[in-house]
Amino acid sequence: MQNSSDREQLRKLYQQEDNSEKSYIPARSKIDPREMDRLFRVCAYCRVSTDNTEQLSSYELQQAHYQQLVRDHPNWELKRIFADEGITGTSLKKRNEFNAMIAACRAGDYDLIVTKSVSRFARNLVDCISTVRMLKGLDPPVGIWFETDNLYTLDPNTEFMLSFLATFAQEESVKKSEAMNWSLSQRFKDGKLLTPAPLGYDRQKDSSGGYVKYAPLVINESEANIVRLIFDAYLSGLSQESIAAFLTDIGCRTKTGSTVWNTGSVGYILTNERYCGNVLTWKTFTSDLYEHKHKKNRRDRDQYLYRQRHEAIISVEKFEAVQVLIENRKHNLRGTLPSLHVIDKGIFKGFIPINHHWVNDDPDIYYDISNSVSEKISVKKLEKSRFCAFDLEGYQVVRNQFTQVRYEGPALTISGEKITFNVFCVKKYADIGYIQLLLHPTERKIAIRPCSEPDTHSIRWRPDPDKPISSKTLTCQHFRNALYSIMEWNPDYIYRIRGVWAKQGEEHIIIFHLVNAVPAVYIPQESENDSPKKPTELCPDEWSDSFGEEFYEHVLENGFYFIEPGEEWQANSPSIPAPGIQQYTTASVSDLNNSIDRIKRGEARTADGKQSDNEHFK
After folding, report:
1. Quick check: 75 and 40 in contact, CB under 8 A?
2. Which of 43, 71, 81, 290 shows the greatest Cβ crowding within 10 Å of its Cβ?
3. What is the pairing mode between strands 143-146 and 76-84?
């Protein structure tokens, strides 16, 4: 803290007059575009936010205005007018003319930018302020003259007003965006759909040649033939890449007239619901007003699905089959759709050969397929005297988990996205090339049996027989999910099932009864230094009051043990298409060839049934 003597000394120093010689050097005068003794190299910037006729007319008027404005200022030399047409002002990314202008200013080509208003220059507060500051910091600085706002950025104390006007312009864009979204929502709700016409369709025209607003699409037969070919080719097993290459080779034209096809153009057609007569609204939306990033609508906005809005080119069944196939191919399933088969006789009657790559989480389809051939067996139908002279009602068959410490039989582990068969199973089928994975959802059983490669949904068992025998793992995320739903299992648990191996003559099978599954869970490590722990098995709640299964229930569950003498298992009975179950739509080779021939011949029928030329074939 200063004392009184220090303060007095400072006061005397300030009061002392400085008589030393000095020269006055005035500050450089502020740049004023209105001063007449300096020549300004000027560029003008104008922008229209949409590409309709009225706005483009405004764009022409803006250019004429700036040419006149420069003529009114003799010290301005108009070098160039930069203009962006049909470009939004909330982002700088796609404003090519604007960015070219800023680059020229950086290069020293201009001294002054003239524009109508802050909202014309930028509707994004950050873009506006940062660009103005950057131009002001150049040497020499570049100013911006906002005409209607009467604001010049090189004047002192203008940033507050600039910030206010830029904020107002940005908020105006936000309000316009909200109003547009509300308008779209109301139109979608009321069924007023401005549906663009994809390949295969045209928009309806009135007598004057203009388009009829909100009218349903009408089929363009010459284009529709190409659409049908694409769907048939995909269902026949061809990839999107192969279809695109074929269409390019034969000279088919896209909707825009190009003869070059790619996977994107084919994929767009295959996933467009308009081809089956439906219209889904608001499939994408702008998630960021300033960056204009488009995002798939995953229930972020209200949607409406209008069915039978217009005449279909593709049936709903065929369209849905294609969507299933697309999803399956994402998981490396090649070829056509998996066939729905079931075994209709022998000990595997009602079992379904499983395609473990198939994308299907719905257990109902497995029940429907199995029940199409299965007959429910009742305990009352059993002749109890077959098994023993005594009635064994009330007796239990003890579970082997309670009697065997070291288990060396077949075992199955279901965890995560995988099903793993232990070494015992692999050894029993050591000389087998292919097996089938079978499921009976009602009896809650999984089985594996030997098969040949051409059999339905055959699985390669041992790719390299020369390698040592090890466990066999199948990756099957979606089948695993369906299985957990069937069994009502906890998705956080691993399940282990002991199975049964049996042989009769040359036939040998392995069956796992899923109700005997033992859940297991990983116990968290107490510290990072602990070694990883194996899953700890849990005792199912339903086992707490019993040692095993009722004898006659056990007989039903393991009925293959008690087949009449001389009766054959028929374990190798082939599967058949599931009777009464609608098979997924596929396309035959003849269907595909007919579609190709129609396109090559230019076959197309007009609305009155007359022949017309195929304009979409080169």
Report:
1. yes
2. 43
3. unpaired
Q: Which domain holds residue 130?
A: 40-174
Which ranges of 417-512 does DSSP label H, i.e. alpha helix?
423-428, 477-487
Same domain, residue pair 377 and 441: yes
Both 242 and 113 in one domain: the answer is: no
In a domain, 584, yes or no: no
Q: Is the pTM of this model over 0.90?
A: no
pLDDT in tens, 484-500: 999 999 888 889 888 88
Tokens of residue 100, six digits? 């070219």
Instruction: Select from 87, 177, 73, 163 the least CA-distant residue to 127.
Output: 163
Query: pLDDT digit string (tens) for 248-266?
Result: 988 888 998 899 999 999 9
Asked if residue 74 belongs to a domain, the reply is: yes
Which tokens hold the place of 536? 């700890």
Among the ranges given (45-54, 106-115, 234-243), the one the predictor scored with the smallest mean pLDDT: 45-54
Output phi, psi for 484, to 5 deg: -65, -35
* Domain CATH number, residue 90: 3.40.50.1390
Domain termination residue (choose one: 158, 174, 190): 174
- Give the residues across from 82 on adjacent strands: 45
Euclidean distance between the first and final Cα of the chain, in Å?
Answer: 95
Q: Quick one: CA dihedral 120, 125, 126, 129, positive or negative? A: positive
| Residues 248, 249, 251, 253, Cα dihedral to 10° | -10
Q: For helices 240-250 and 589-601, what crossing angle results, to 10°?
A: 30
Question: Angle CA(70)–CA(29)–CA(72) in degrees, nearest 5?
Answer: 15
Q: In terms of domains, do 321 and 397 share one?
A: no
Q: State whether residue 530 is helix, strand or coil.
A: coil
- Structurally, the chain folds into a number of domains equal to 3
Q: Please give the Cα distance from 46 to 172 (Å, whole number).
A: 18
CA 180/CA 295 separation, integer angstroms: 17
- Supply 513's token pair: 């009864």
- Looking up tokens 């928009």, which residue turns up? 203
153 in a structural domain: yes
**Domain-embedded: residue 25:** no
List pLDDT tens digits, range 252-307.
889 988 999 999 999 999 999 999 998 887 676 565 555 556 667 666 677 777 88
**Residue 259 region, left (φ>0) first, then alpha (ψ -120 to 50), else beta?**
alpha
* Whether pLDDT at 462 is above 80: yes
Closest CA to 138 of 102, 166, 98: 102
